[in-house]
Amino acid sequence: SDHMENICGYLMKYTNLVTGWQYRFFVLNNDAGLLEYFVNEQSRHLKPRGTLQLAGAVISPSDEDSHTFTVNAASGEQYKLRATDAKERQHWVSRLQICTQHHTEAIGKNNPPLKSRSFSLASQGSASSPGVQRRPSQNAVSFFNVGHHRLSTGKRVPIMQPDHLVDVREMMSQAEGQQRDLIRSIECLPVSGHLTSLDQDLLMLKATSMATMNCLNDCFHILQLQHASQQKGSLPAGTTINWLEPKISLANHFKNGAAQNFPAEINKPASVREEQSVAEPCQLTREPEEINPDEELEDICDDKEDDLGAVEEQRSVILHLLSQLKLGMDLTRVVLPTFILEKRSLLEMYADFMSHPDLFIAITNGTTPEERMIRFVEYYLTSFHEGRKGAIAKKPYNPIIGETFHCSWRMPKSDVATDAGSNSSAHSASESVTLPKDLEGQKELDYYTVKFVAEQVSHHPPVSGFYAECAERKMCVNAHVWTKSKFLGMSIGVTMVGEGLLSLLEYGEEYTFSLPCAYARSILTVPWVELGGKVNINCAKTGYSASINFHTKPFYGGKLHRVTGEVKQNMTNTVVCRVQGEWNSVLEFTYSNGETKYVDLTKLSVTRKRVRPLEKQGPFESRRLWQHVTESLRDGDIDKATEHKRALEERQRNEERLRAETETPWCTKYFLKEGDGWVYHKPLWKTVSAVQTHQTDAN
């Protein structure tokens, strides 16, 4: 209570996408347990513009920056606020948390738990019953009525008995069944007419009823934990507490908003039974596997994602999903509907960024540090266009932990661009480093080989590691990426947290780089992809750096997909190259000597990657792992694709649960944790360094 003080001051409050952030005067009323705000301090004597009850609220500092935090009220209302600095945020957060805890505990003391509850649905029946065909005059709330019975005033039960938990579970099962009936009733309404299944109020009712059941399940879990903690003191040593599991998993009740009725296990396709089989990954071989590029064949798969049919047909599902999301909500654990998926894994998408291996290899042809930095920037900006599989914004599969993807590219040496006068110097430099013995036989080949491997190294948070190398040119790139997705209203934003490192071993240069954010815009109409944010490329040895800005389209006017950037010599602060244009169309490079170069990305030749046939791939390689989902999507069978996808995700959850119970850490296959990042277990710089050391010792 010493810290219970009424505080006030200006904070920025997020209003909406159009208005954005606005300064408002906030007052914390500790006595009433209220957070109020006014337009300004002068209007404090007037009625507040907004008020939040803090009892039961959650105060959360944001991970966006050190200034932002959110106040989530028990009513579901949320304030997103921003202080002037980290110290002021901490002051507000700590005072709000103290006030919230005080009033939440007060409510708990003054309001004993209810003894029982009874649920009744106003209308239960089939889709053809009169109750389902709702009259226009009926209120939507009449579909779902909840009645309460008060406790007799003379009795109070200090500890809930196990049979009471069973009763609660039974009542919740009834409520879940009634909620399913509600969903069916709404979805059986016609798609046109006075009252349709796409009615905004009914969509909101579907979402809120689902949220209510989720909340009840969370509360029930809290009761289980409370009951266990109260009983622990009276239990003999060694007693195991068995949690009362829900009879039906609420998360699996619905597929795209509809009730699930799966056939018995015996009737499921063999592929689904295979996906659902729980196999502890560490029982499989986790030893790194050397992939022979000669076993890989040129990829003939060409899955363009320009089909809008499924998106248009499932618009009601998108509306239903949107009605459950809140602005700024983290979508990492949100299961999105299957029809918006691309026919490839995220790991393969990273490989498609390497679809111009000629530009990648040509980086080493630069005769000066300045030229090599500019070549890397050119390659970097041309990589994103081919990473997309069409104009429609769709989402690749979320990789399963332990999933891997392998491929390679063969690039004829005659197709790798070299500048006049750079051949001899590049060649002599390459001969200054001796290749490992297992690569010496490739020196006479008329093509270069670029190898690629990616692995999902973590599930929560979702982190992918990928590595590519061209051993003959003594160059490799290692990167790790953590994808963080958030709901932004009518779009979805994905932040690519992580760092990449390009190593040019013949020059002893290392280039660090980051990745831009990605946005799926207009998700209710024709979804499209936009890149945004600032990325930096740095080479500490040479002192050259590049700053690249991916510009998002302004609310009014402006161009799409615009990118600008400059390459600079840090020591002299001299700009040696400027770039502008569109990252998926034409780029213009202007050099310090006045020359200008145009690159039309739509006309750049794409080298097809080489992939092993499915029958030669391991069970955790992307294409084999997701083959049944991909086949179902190609056939347009969304239901079957959803079933296969759910089986894979359920297997991952079961394996994760088993590892937690046995306290078995996950062991990666190709990447090792180093500090905050992940590094390939056998990078080229280690191989070349070992060979050079051996040669030095021999001499």
From TrEMBL:
<feature type="domain" description="PH">
    <location>
        <begin position="4"/>
        <end position="101"/>
    </location>
</feature>
<keyword id="KW-0597">Phosphoprotein</keyword>
<feature type="region of interest" description="Disordered">
    <location>
        <begin position="104"/>
        <end position="138"/>
    </location>
</feature>
<dbReference type="InterPro" id="IPR001849">
    <property type="entry name" value="PH_domain"/>
</dbReference>
<protein>
    <recommendedName>
        <fullName>Oxysterol-binding protein</fullName>
    </recommendedName>
</protein>
<dbReference type="InterPro" id="IPR000648">
    <property type="entry name" value="Oxysterol-bd"/>
</dbReference>
<dbReference type="Pfam" id="PF01237">
    <property type="entry name" value="Oxysterol_BP"/>
</dbReference>
<keyword id="KW-0446">Lipid-binding</keyword>
<dbReference type="InterPro" id="IPR018494">
    <property type="entry name" value="Oxysterol-bd_CS"/>
</dbReference>
<keyword id="KW-0445">Lipid transport</keyword>
<feature type="region of interest" description="Disordered">
    <location>
        <begin position="638"/>
        <end position="658"/>
    </location>
</feature>
<dbReference type="GO" id="GO:0006869">
    <property type="term" value="P:lipid transport"/>
</dbReference>
<feature type="compositionally biased region" description="Low complexity">
    <location>
        <begin position="116"/>
        <end position="129"/>
    </location>
</feature>
<dbReference type="GO" id="GO:0005794">
    <property type="term" value="C:Golgi apparatus"/>
</dbReference>
<keyword id="KW-0472">Membrane</keyword>
<dbReference type="InterPro" id="IPR011993">
    <property type="entry name" value="PH-like_dom_sf"/>
</dbReference>
<keyword id="KW-0813">Transport</keyword>
<dbReference type="GO" id="GO:0031902">
    <property type="term" value="C:late endosome membrane"/>
</dbReference>
<comment type="similarity">
    <text>Belongs to the OSBP family.</text>
</comment>
<keyword id="KW-0967">Endosome</keyword>
<comment type="function">
    <text>Plays a role in regulating ADIPOQ and FABP4 levels in differentiating adipocytes and is also involved in regulation of adipocyte triglyceride storage. Weakly binds 25-hydroxycholesterol. Interacts with OSBPL9 to function as lipid transfer proteins.</text>
</comment>
<comment type="subunit">
    <text>Heterodimer with OSBPL9.</text>
</comment>
<dbReference type="InterPro" id="IPR037239">
    <property type="entry name" value="OSBP_sf"/>
</dbReference>
<dbReference type="Pfam" id="PF00169">
    <property type="entry name" value="PH"/>
</dbReference>
<keyword id="KW-0007">Acetylation</keyword>
<dbReference type="GO" id="GO:0005829">
    <property type="term" value="C:cytosol"/>
</dbReference>
<dbReference type="GO" id="GO:0032934">
    <property type="term" value="F:sterol binding"/>
</dbReference>
<keyword id="KW-0333">Golgi apparatus</keyword>
